[in-house]
Amino acid sequence: MTLTAEPLSGFLGAEIKGLDLSRPIGEDDREQLLELFWRHKVIVVRGQDVDPDGFIRFAEAFGRIEPFFISAYNLPTHPQIYVLSNVRENGKPIGRDGAGTHWHSDSTFTEKPSSVTLLHGVTVPDRGGDTLFVDTADAYERLDADTKARIDGRRAIHRYQRKEFVFSGDRVADERERAEIERLKALRLAEEAAANPSPTAQRSNREPDRLHPIVRTHPVTGRKALYLNDEMTVGIEGMPDDEAVPLLHRLCEFATDPERTLRFRWQPGDVVAWDNAAVIHTATYTPPDLPRLMHRLTIEGTAPF
Q1: Phi and psi for 210 in degrees, rounded to 5?
Q2: To the nearest 10°, the Cα dihedral for 15, 19, 25, 28?
Q3: pLDDT digits (tens, 9 = 90+) for 165-219
Q4: How far is CA 17 from the centre of its chain?
Q5: CB 253 within 8 A of CB 230
Q6: Cα 58 to Cα 83: distance, rounded to the nearest angstrom
Q7: What are the pLDDT digits (tens) for 97-114?
């Protein structure tokens, strides 16, 4: 079978056609899939009626699946799968609510961050819940020479911090949506104060700081890219914080220019994969009355260099 790639924008992402994820992927298709993936950095296979076994099988085409470091929201029948959802049953969330609502590459607070992340849109809302993506190799290439010289060879300090209740990384959210976000954030904080700390909050003080290059070299393509996590990079090794923190935020602001941002609008059955060494992403707000249920898998990575 020959796979084709239809661009999602003029600068990032592609829809892959010619795959049926209910069936195993042959080796020729796998090789072509990976070539398209490394080229386009964000890919989607649309309209897939895929069960958890099929989702896991597809993920394994990219490498070895890693367990998520917090197990509280794993799918009981398939613990490799982490559940993201705003749905509640008997007052309790069935998955992680509000995760990833800041610009980041996944698991940068670990020694060997995830190489690939995959999401399956099991239930998607008809409004909200978009995922935004930015090509950080493109962002690095657009930097001026002075900034490149200032950051090349430098390492950022990545610190795990609880960011459960941000609820949107979207710069262009209107006032009504921002008011809805603040209301929901206050509700969730009140719930947490009345209960035991969440699994994410419990983990906050147990992860050691990690040092990763601000400019990393891609382990497959060899291209240089900014390596960013706007909420979990707290400084730069050997640089005063009053210089480092504004610089890190400025880099993220530069990279996430809305004119260079892919806004991915989910459709039921979408399976999306992205390259964490060359892309940062953020979740956006989902109204709490519109159910959203996503299954997530990540692939083992290597230490950034």
Answers
A1: -125, 145
A2: -70
A3: 666 777 777 888 888 878 887 877 777 777 776 666 566 557 799 999 999 999 9
A4: 23
A5: no
A6: 17
A7: 878 889 999 999 999 999
